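Input structure tokens:
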């Protein structure tokens, strides 16, 4: 049973990893985007619409091609979530609106838009969503190979999005620490006035970082829809989006640490479900991941060093004439 819990936790951690990795890019640029939960909902909505368009065009899931079955939901997820990030940037950068208010507005929009949009999809077509999820997204390797021993089960029991999330987190860490783009992005987040004086376009970096970060966070919504709920629209991902935002603080704005942090958050959430308890005790145990999250964030805030602190310009709008 322990192996099952670990595998399930790794799968579920993908929701948090995509969400926190995207938010980390955004916050490194100085944008505090509290719209991440809504953006994850918008990403899930986009992936559903992409799958719906594809299934409608080919006459159902029985005729699906494996590449297009993954590509269409992925493309629409990135487009919709990226558009939400562009909307946030328009208000925060161009109009210089309060970032907290703008983010909460985006979250409200995403949470409300998701059930409205998915309710308009034709039920005869949406029956194929579970087929798409299990056949093309949930599992990548043949079942006989995966179940050959415990090691293959641990390493290969997942769909392509799980491996993509880990690759994205590692890539972001390398770009942030080893490239000129990462250096400029961190400069924009730490001191936008100095970055502007050095010839770095603050507005461009904040726009691009927020759009790309939002697109990545949206993939967490797509994964939750297709892998965790098998395409069931009645489940909404926004609650996990808030945990993804808190995970950014826990990992001290480092996506490579976010891989382990996402697993820890997922394990704390998954483990109580495997305990043989019921009634009030079960409800109390289900509170453990949320209580643990609070404790972890408090301890992180107390013991974090300078390298683990938030970007100095986080949440502050920049206007060149204010220099």
């Amino acid at each position: 049973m322990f192996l099952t819990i670990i595998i399930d936790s790794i799968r579920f951690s993908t929701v948090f990893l995509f969400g926190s990795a995207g938010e980390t890019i955004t916050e490194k640029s100085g944008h505090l985007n509290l719209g991440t939960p809504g953006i994850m909902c918008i990403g899930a909505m986009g992936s559903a619409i992409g799958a719906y368009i594809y299934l409608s065009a080919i006459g159902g899931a029985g005729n699906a091609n494996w590449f297009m079955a993954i590509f269409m939901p992925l493309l629409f997820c990135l487009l919709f979530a990226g558009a939400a990030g562009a909307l946030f940037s328009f208000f925060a950068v161009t109009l210089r609106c309060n970032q907290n208010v703008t983010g909460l507005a985006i979250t409200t929009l995403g949470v409300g838009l998701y059930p409205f949009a998915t309710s308009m999809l034709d039920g005869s077509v949406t029956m194929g969503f579970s087929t798409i999820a299990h056949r093309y997204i949930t599992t990548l390797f043949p079942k006989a190979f995966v179940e050959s021993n415990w090691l293959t089960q641990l390493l290969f029991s997942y769909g392509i999005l799980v491996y993509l999330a880990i690759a994205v987190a590692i890539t972001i860490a390398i770009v942030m620490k080893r490239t000129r783009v990462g250096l400029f992005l961190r400069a924009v987040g730490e001191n936008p006035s100095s970055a502007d004086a050095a010839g770095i376009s603050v507005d461009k970096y904040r726009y691009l970082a927020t759009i790309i970060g939002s697109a990545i966070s949206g993939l967490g919504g797509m994964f939750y829809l297709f892998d965790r709920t098998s395409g069931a629209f009645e489940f909404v991902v926004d609650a996990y989006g808030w945990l993804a935002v808190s995970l950014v603080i826990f990992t001290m704005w480092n996506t490579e640490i976010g891989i382990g942090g996402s697993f820890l958050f997922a394990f704390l959430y998954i483990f109580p479900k495997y305990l043989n308890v019921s009634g009030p005790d079960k409800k109390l145990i289900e509170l453990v991941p949320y209580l643990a999250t609070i404790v972890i964030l408090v301890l992180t805030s107390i013991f974090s060093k300078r390298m683990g602190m938030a970007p100095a310009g986080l949440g502050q709008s920049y206007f060149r004439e204010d220099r």
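The chain has one domain: 9-307. The mean pLDDT is 89.
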